[in-house]
C-alpha cells in the first residue's frame, strides 16, 4: 500500500518549527560535569528531519526563526549547505536566542539533555510570518509538537495547518513531545489532540500518544479509532526496540521491526526515523518499505555522535536493510 | 425550519466564559469625567446571555471563574437569584480580580467603555476546571470569543469544544469580539476560525466575521460557504439596523428585521439578541421566529440602563413583536 | 522647636507617586456585595496629601503618571481645581490604567478596600520623567512608600531622592505601606530602610516602622536611634488612638494626642494627618502645633465620606483644636 | 599608603553575585560561525575574582545561586577545588539555568561574547538568602554591578550592603557593567550611584563611571569629588593601556601602568585586575603595589585562553612586575 501526495507541488516537504544548536559532549561515557569540551551541531526535531530528508535527496524547505547572531547564521549556513531551502528562515529582531541542547552521554542507556529553551527565537515565529505562497508549494508540511508549546509559535503553526488544508498540502504531525516549555500536560493534550485531528499523517511513540490522550497506558486500537474519526488516514505508533506500527484508515496495519546496532546514544532516533520514513513514502514506496527505512535510519543515527550530521544516505539505509533481512 | 438539539439533556444551555461587573454612569449624556456616581450590574457577554436565557425560562448553567472577593460574590449571588445554576463557578485563589466595564453614555450614538481586563479572573479558567460530567448534560454550550483571547482560558474553551463534540452537545459560538487582551488581529483570526469551524451555530456581526477572516468588507455568501465546509450548520450574521440573516447549511436563508425603539445606549444589544434567539430555537420555534425574538430583545435592552438587569421576559418580547408587525 | 526648610524655593511641597480613583460605597454599613452605587473621588496617598496641603493654602505641585482616559483626566482636573500644579502629571501612552479602590464600610471598625493595582499607570513613572528643574524648586518632596513597590516607579523615586539631595530639598518619607504589589516583606524592608535612611523626615505608624525593620513589636527608641545614624532628623511614629510621637535628632520628643470624633470610616486618616502636619511645619509652627494639626485633620476626615474631598480648611482644624483643649 | 580592613574577621573576602559558564572557542582567530568546538570554564566577574583571590592565597567565600544541574555542580566543584568556600552557594529550585558566555576571538582586537542571560539562576538570589552570620565574618564584601540588573538579585545585593554596614565589613564595588539585562542606562545609573555612594572602595573603567553618572566624557576629578561626599574612601579608575588611577579620600592620587604582553583576547582583564589588586591591599601592601599587582595580573590573563583557569599565582605576578620595571 502506498500513500498518495499531491504531485503537482514544487517541494517534497517543508518542515516548520525549531532549528537549534546541539552541544555534544566530546568526552563521553561520564557525567557532563566531567566533560570539558563540546562539539557544535545543528539540532531541533524539524531541522533534523529537514536535513535528513535533504541528504536523502528530497527537495526540502524550512520555515523557522533564528537570532541575528553567530549561532543563527551557523544554522542557516549548515542547512543551506546540505541543500535545504532556507529562504523562509526569519531573522529575529527582538534579541531572542537560539535554543541550546547540551547532551550528556553517561552510557548508551543513560543519556540526558540539559536544555536552554527560555524565550528562544523559534518560539517567537509569528502567524503573519507564515508565507502562504511558499507553504502551498509543498506536498507535505512537517510539524513538530514542540512548536505548539508557546505563543506566538503556537498560532503560527495553527495558521500553517489552516493554510495547508486550504491548499491540499498533506500535514505530517510528528508529536515530538518535550516536557520543558509546556505549562501542563492538560495544555499539551488540548493542542496535541487539536492538531492531530487536523493532520493527515501522525507519527509518535506510544508515550507521546498517551500524552495526546492525557492518560497513561493507552491502547493503539482505541487511539487510532479516535483519530480516524477526524482527518488522519495514516498513523505511526513507535514502541522502541519492539518496532513500530503503521495504521491506515482503510483498516490495514503494518509492522516494522527495529534494526540492531551498537548504540552510542539515544538522541536523534525519532528525527532520523521520520526523515527516512517520509522519504520512502514521498518516493512512492510502500508503507512496509517506509517502515524499514525509518527503522534503519534510526539505527544508524543512534550509533553516531550527532543527530543532524549523522543523517544517513539512501545507500547506507539500503545496505543496513539488506544486511539484516 | 427548526433547529434540532439533543433533547435528552438536563440543561437547555450552559454558557462558559467571563462574568464581570458593569459600572454604569448614573448621570449620563455627558463625558464620564463628569459622572460622579456609578451603578453596579453583572456584565460580560456569556453571563448576560445566561441571565437573559434564564429570565426567559430556560434551564441554564454557567462555567466561569471569579475572585474570592465582594465583586465575585455579588456576581454569583445575582446569577443564582435569577435562576442560573452556578455550581461550576470556580473561585480563583491566585488574587485575580473581576473584570470591570465603566460605561460612558455621551449620547445614544456615542457610547464607550473603559475596561479593566488586566489579569482578570475569567481569563484564568483552566482546562482541568472544565467538568466533563457537567458539560455533557446540556443541549447547547454557549462560547463567547473573548474567552479565547488568552491562556489558560483559551485552552479551557478548546477543551470544552472537544468535550462537547464527544458528548453530542450543540456548540454555539458568539463571536463577541473585543479588541483588548488580544495581541493581534492575526492571532484573533486563527482562533476564531479554529473554533468557528468546530461549532454548530455561529453568531456575530458582519464586522466580527471579517475579523474571523482577517480581512475587511467580506461577503456573507463567501463566509457561509467557507464555514459550511466544516461543522457549522447555522450561521447568523447581524447587520445592525438593517437586520440580521440566518443561513442554514441546507441552503435556506432567513432575514430578521430590526425593531424600532428609543435608544439609550448600544451596550447589551448582542447579548440580549443571542439569549432570545437561542431561547426560541431551544423552545422549538422556527428560525424565522427566533430571528424576531433576537431582534426584539435587543431593542428592549438598548432602551434601558443595564445589560443584565434589563433582560426582558417572553411577554415583553412578544408584545413588541406584535406591536411592530 | 521648629523645623527649618530652605526658604528660597518656589513650591512649599511637591508630592510624587500615585493619584488614583476611590469608588466609595454610597449605601454603607453593609457588605459591599449589597452596595449597588459608588461615588467617585480622587484617591491615593500622595495625591490626597497634595490636595490636603493645597486646600490648607500651601503652594503645592505633583509628579505622577495617569492614563489617557476619562479617569486620568478627572484626576488632573480635580487636582488642578483645588490648586495643585499638575504640569508634571505625565500621561501614560502604553495602555496602563488608573488604580481603583472600592471601599467597603461595614461599620466604623470594619472597613476594607478592594484594590485594582495590576499594571496601574502610577507604577510606570520612569526615572527620566522626573524633571530636575521642577523638583529643585520645592522646599519639601513628599514620597509615599507605595511608589517603591515596583519598577520603574521605584527607580523614579530613587532618582528623585538623589536629585533632592543634590538641590537641598527636604525629603519627607510617608511610609504608606500597602501589602499589594510588593513581592515580599523582605523586599519591602530593603527599600523602606534604603529610602528612610536618606530622608529628612520620616512619618509612619508603628506597624509601618516594624515593616521597615522586617520584624514585629519594635520599640520607638531603637527605631529612631537606628535612623538618626543616617540622614533623618525628624521622625513621627503614630500609635492610633493613643496619639503620635515626634522625635527630633537633637533628642527632643513631642507627643500629640488624638482628637475625638464620630468615626464613619478609617480611610484617609494618614493622608490628612500628613498634609496638616506638614502644613504647620512649613508655615513655621512648632512641632507641637504640627502634631495637633495632624491629629485634628485626621479626626475630621475619618468622620466624612471621602479622603480627598473631605480634606479640611485651616479654620476647621483650628476650631477642633480649640474645642478639645 | 595602605588601606585598613577590620582584621578580626575570618574571611579575607566574600564575593557575591553570578557564577556562570564560559564556553571558549577552541578554534579561534575566526568568526564563531566557524568554531566547531568549545571549552568549558567557570566564568562571571565575581566568581572569577573569588577564584583569582583564592589562587593567590586569600581565604575567600562566595554567595551565589546556581541551578540543580550539571553546569551548576561543575561550578561549585571547580570553585571548591581552588579553595573557595562554597557553603553559601544556594541551589535554585525553580528551573533557572546557569548563564552562558560563548566567546568569539576573531583577533586580539576583535573579541565578542554571545550571552545567555535570560532568567539565569544568579539573578534569582533572594534577599532572605543572604546569610548575615556568614557575611559579617569577612573583611571585604566584593559586589559586582551586574547583580543589580534585576530583581530579586538586586534586593539581595542591597540587603548585603545594609548588613555589611551594620557589621563593619568593607564594601568593594566592582562596577562590571554589561549592557544586557538592564532596561535602560537611566535605571543603571540610579543603582550604580546608589551602591557606589554606600561602598568603601569603588573600581571601574572610565566608561563604567560614565555609566554611573549617566553621561559621556566625565572627568575623574569630578567623579571622585562627588563620591567622596559619601561613604567611599578609595576609588580606582581604569583607562586601559594608559594605566589606572587610585584616588584616596585623603587627597592622594596613585597611578599604575599597564604591563606589556602578547594579547590573545580581552576577556577577564577586569576580574584578574580586581583579584590581584584586592589581594595586595588585603595583604597590607601599599596602594602603589596593589596597582602593580592588578595590572600585572590582567596582563597575564589576557595572554591566555580562559578567565578563571588562567588566574595567576603570586610568583607569576611578581615575576612580571620584576621583568618590566
Automatic annotation (TrEMBL), chains A, B, C, D:
Residue ranges occupied by any Carbohydrate kinase PfkB domain in the UniProt entry: 14-313
Q: List the CDD domains hit by this protein, alphabetically.
A: KdgK
Q: Which InterPro entries match?
A: Carboh/pur_kinase_PfkB_CS, DKG_kinase_firmi, Myo_inos_IolC, Myo_inos_IolC-like_sf, PfkB_Carbo_kinase, PfkB_dom, Ribokinase-like
Superkingdom of the source species: Bacteria
Kindly indicate whether the keyword ATP-binding belongs to this entry. yes
Q: Does the keyword Kinase apply?
A: yes
The EC number of this protein is 2.7.1.92
User: Pfam families from the xrefs?
Assistant: PfkB
* Pathway(s) annotated for this protein in UniProt: Polyol metabolism; myo-inositol degradation into acetyl-CoA; acetyl-CoA from myo-inositol: step 5/7
What the entry lists under PROSITE patterns is as follows: PFKB_KINASES_2
Q: Keywords of this protein's UniProt record, alphabetized?
A: ATP-binding, Kinase, Nucleotide-binding, Transferase
Q: Which top EC class is given? A: transferase
Gene Ontology MF annotations: 5-dehydro-2-deoxygluconokinase activity; ATP binding
Catalytic reaction equation(s): 5-dehydro-2-deoxy-D-gluconate + ATP = 6-phospho-5-dehydro-2-deoxy-D-gluconate + ADP + H(+)
Please give the biological process terms from Gene Ontology that the record holds: inositol catabolic process
What does the UniProt function comment say about this protein? Answer: Catalyzes the phosphorylation of 5-dehydro-2-deoxy-D-gluconate (2-deoxy-5-keto-D-gluconate or DKG) to 6-phospho-5-dehydro-2-deoxy-D-gluconate (DKGP).
Query: According to its UniProt record, which protein family does this protein belong to?
Result: Belongs to the carbohydrate kinase PfkB family.
In its UniProt entry, what is this protein called? 5-dehydro-2-deoxygluconokinase
What organism is listed for this UniProt entry?
Listeria booriae
Amino acid at each position: 500500500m502506498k500513500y498518495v501526495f499531491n504531485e503537482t507541488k514544487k517541494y517534497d516537504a517543508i518542515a516548520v518549527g525549531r532549528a537549534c544548536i546541539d552541544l555534544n559532549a566530546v568526552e563521553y561515557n561520564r557525567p557532563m560535569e566531567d566533560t570539558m569540551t563540546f562539539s557544535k551541531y545543528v539540532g531541533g526535531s524539524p531541522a533534523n528531519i529537514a536535513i535528513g530528508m535533504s541528504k536523502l535527496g528530497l527537495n526540502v524547505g524550512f520555515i523557522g526563526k533564528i537570532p541575528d547572531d553567530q549561532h543563527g547564521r551557523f544554522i542557516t549556513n549548515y542547512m543551506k549547505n546540505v541543500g535545504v531551502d532556507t529562504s523562509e528562515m526569519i531573522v529575529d529582531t527582538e534579541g531572542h536566542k537560539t535554543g541550546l541542547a547540551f547532551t550528556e552521554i553517561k552510557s548508551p542507556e543513560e543519556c540526558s539533555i540539559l536544555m536552554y529553551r527560555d524565550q528562544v527565537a523559534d518560539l517567537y515565529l509569528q502567524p503573519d510570518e507564515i508565507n502562504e505562497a511558499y507553504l502551498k508549494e509543498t506536498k507535505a508540511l512537517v510539524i513538530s509538537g514542540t512548536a505548539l508549546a508557546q505563543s506566538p509559535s503556537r498560532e503560527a503553526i495553527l495558521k500553517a495547518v489552516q493554510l495547508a488544508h486550504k491548499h491540499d498540502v498533506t500535514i505530517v504531525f510528528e508529536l515530538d513531545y518535550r516536557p520543558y516549555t509546556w505549562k501542563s500536560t492538560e495544555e499539551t493534550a488540548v493542542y496535541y489532540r487539536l492538531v492531530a485531528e487536523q493532520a493527515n499523517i501522525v507519527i509518535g511513540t506510544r508515550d507521546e500518544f498517551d500524552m495526546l490522550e492525557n492518560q497513561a497506558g493507552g491502547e493503539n486500537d482505541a487511539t487510532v479509532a479516535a483519530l480516524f474519526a477526524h482527518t488522519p488516514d495514516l498513523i505511526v505508533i513507535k514502541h522502541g526496540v519492539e518496532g513500530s506500527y503503521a495504521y491506515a484508515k482503510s483498516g490495514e496495519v503494518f509492522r516494522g521491526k527495529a534494526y540492531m546496532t551498537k548504540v552510542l546514544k539515544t538522541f536523534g532516533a525519532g528525527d532520523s526515523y521520520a526523515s527516512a520514513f517520509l522519504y520512502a513514502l514521498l518516493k512512492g514506496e510502500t508503507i512496509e518499505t517506509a517502515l524499514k527505512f525509518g527503522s534503519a535510519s534510526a539505527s544508524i543515527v543512534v550509533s553516531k555522535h550527532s543527530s543532524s550530521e549523522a543523517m544517513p544516505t539512501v545507500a547506507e539505509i539500503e545496505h543496513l536493510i539488506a544486511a539484516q533481512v
